[in-house]
């Protein structure tokens, strides 16, 4: 451990109820700053996820059949999940050594700049860009992952380390609420563009608008975060000369078990979310017959392989985006509901019940998806409601596993390593299982249920953290 005699960057002194000198944030500012930052970060992330299904296969991977182009697009989508653990290590290091505020600003800038640059890229059919365009797309996607890897844990700590006694799980839901808000803004913007542009105009330049618009959102987020002061919990770490010299080394040495548990506690959440967004958008908008698939490929000027064709639900892009947005509204509602439930019943017990629900839900994929419009809507609503219930408490659950001086690193690494095993490969595994089952999604649902089993086991092996001493600086 290293001593430090300076006040963390961005701090201003104030008095707390205990009489010691410490930074003070207004609760309304804490809520808004944690919410606005993650909303922007998730907006940036979802803009790419939507474009990876709707635009990027033809724009950046044009010289292949539809399935191969989609797989290539999903592979670039997965690059961010490689960057996320690295981002959690990088930003976690500075978040545990320099402070939460400065690190959060840097993470937001990283994500915002990468998103803006994606909007500036020429397509792979532009002369001289056949190789460079998809390579830069993947690089900028990787940078998006670096930024989000540092964002989540910092926003969660901003909320929970400033929360009143007995309300950590409630305050921890506010950064989580950024996920459905970011999704709705991103896909709502894509929906508006689809309704106001021809497909040709959208493919030519309309898809760039959501990426370029990110710059305006980042400016708002930076303004809010520059007005923050450092969290009292981190200030106490500095005052007691308990700043970890190498937070990553310390957390692996003393908190390795918590890292493992945290990673698998998040697993089902990640698998569920990326199946309900990226995969369902693919499955929902894929033509429902070989004839319709061939007609769509001919209209796009792409080769068609009838043997590799997988039938989907056949909804139009616009219709299914609206259906997804309706489902995500339930995601937001149940994210907020999850906080009070986790305070009342405890994180471990509440999440165990929800995870059991996710296990059952995996076996409902086929019956619901095959039941027409009403069944598909129930599929989306139930899935996103479960997503809110499992995602909401994570803003408190993961940080509560770690002491203050390695909390940024520990919670961030757990959250983002889980993103690799739970999210980066989820759309690709789902596509493979979809094909293996001959066009049925029964194996995709079983895949989700197996992830729920692993998460349930991790929850039962963990301890309840509701009454844990969040002021513990070093273990």
From TrEMBL:
Recorded GO cellular component terms are: plasma membrane
One term of GO molecular function? transmembrane transporter activity
Query: Domain named Major facilitator superfamily (MFS) profile: which ranges?
Result: 30-463
Q: Where is this region: Disordered?
A: 1-22
Q: Could you tell me the membrane topology recorded for this protein?
A: Multi-pass membrane protein
Q: Which InterPro entries match?
A: MFS_dom, MFS_sugar_transport-like, MFS_trans_sf, Sugar_transporter_CS
Q: Which residue ranges traverse the bilayer?
A: 70-92, 104-124, 130-148, 169-193, 205-226, 254-276, 320-342, 349-366, 372-392, 413-434, 440-459
Entry superkingdom:
Bacteria
Keywords for this entry? Cell membrane, Membrane, Transmembrane, Transmembrane helix, Transport
Where composition is biased (Low complexity), the residues are 1-15
The answer to keyword Transmembrane helix applying to this record is: yes
Subcellular location as annotated: Cell membrane
| This protein's name | MHS family MFS transporter
Q: What organism is recorded for this protein?
A: Schumannella soli
Q: What is the lineage of its organism?
A: Bacteria, Bacillati, Actinomycetota, Actinomycetes, Micrococcales
